[in-house]
Amino acid sequence: MSNYTVPHWERSILITIDTQNDFTLPGAPAEIKGTAEIVPNMKKLLDAYRSHHLPILHVIRFYKEDGSNADICRRESIEQGAKIAVPGSTGAELVDHIRPVGAPPLDENALFNGEFQQIGDSEWVMYKSRWGAFYQTRLGQFLRDKGIDTLVFCGCNFPNCPRTSMYEASERDFRVVLVADAMSQVYEKGLQEMDNIGVYVCHTDDLVKVLESNS
């Protein structure tokens, strides 16, 4: 890898994308196939980051029941009554396996206001209104303020929100890591595309070992 793209693990943050009940649980209203299966690997990553006191950010979606904040591809169905990740609902919450012990419920008012809700030691949640985590959010400044230059991505549905967020991170000169077996809907051509823009692609156990060796 280039000196400009190699991960700086000691300055990294683990970012989970949209791993909420309504997108993850079998039979959920907007279930993304394969997400429930990668949650155990996500938990391994989260446990490793927590044990090494490295920061974690959970990026989530909310859809107001009137559809006013929804992507245009989903707005009509929500206007017609589909209920997906409704603020304040159980479906909008992070799946239990990735929540830190004692985490409070999501604070939709603070999150809609662009705040980063702290739910654990060095662990936050932020809301995004579209595919990309940087779109109309304060994420870039949040990361720079904390001296973070390496973003490690895992979570829900590679083709949409994770891929968009990784391109956004790359164009802002962050070093980017994709944990392939801790993200749903990953496919080979997509991995090649990530490699082409300097994304470091790895697997859960390899990353856990790297963190242990650097501790």
Automatic annotation (TrEMBL):
GO MF terms, alphabetically ordered: hydrolase activity
Keywords: Hydrolase
Superkingdom classification of source: Bacteria
Isochorismatase-like domain mapped to chain residues: 12-205
Gene3D superfamilies: Isochorismatase-like
InterPro entries registered for this protein in UniProt: Isochorismatase-like_dom (IPR000868), Isochorismatase-like_hydrls (IPR050272), Isochorismatase-like_sf (IPR036380)
Pfam assignment, any one: Isochorismatase
Similarity-based family: Belongs to the isochorismatase family.
Protein name: Hypothetical isochorismatase hydrolase
Organism of origin: Effusibacillus dendaii
Lineage: Bacteria, Bacillati, Bacillota, Bacilli, Bacillales
